[in-house]
Amino acid sequence: MKPFHKKRSSSKIINIITAPFRFLALVYKILSKLASTLCKSLKDFFTKEPENTSLDKVLNTAWESPQELLIHVKALRKHLLRALIVLILGVILSLAFSKQFLNWLTAPIGGIELLEAIEVTEPMTVVMRVAFLTGFTLTLPYTTLEIWLFLAPGLKTRPRLWGLGFIPLATLLFAGGMAFAYYVMLPTALPVLLNFMGLKTTPRPDSYIRFVTGLMFWIGITFEFPLVIFVIAKLGWVKAKTLASQWRIAIVIISVIAAIITPTVDPINMLLVMVPMIALYLFSTLLAYLAQS
Question: Where in the chain are the domains?
Answer without folding.
Answer: 56-222, 224-293
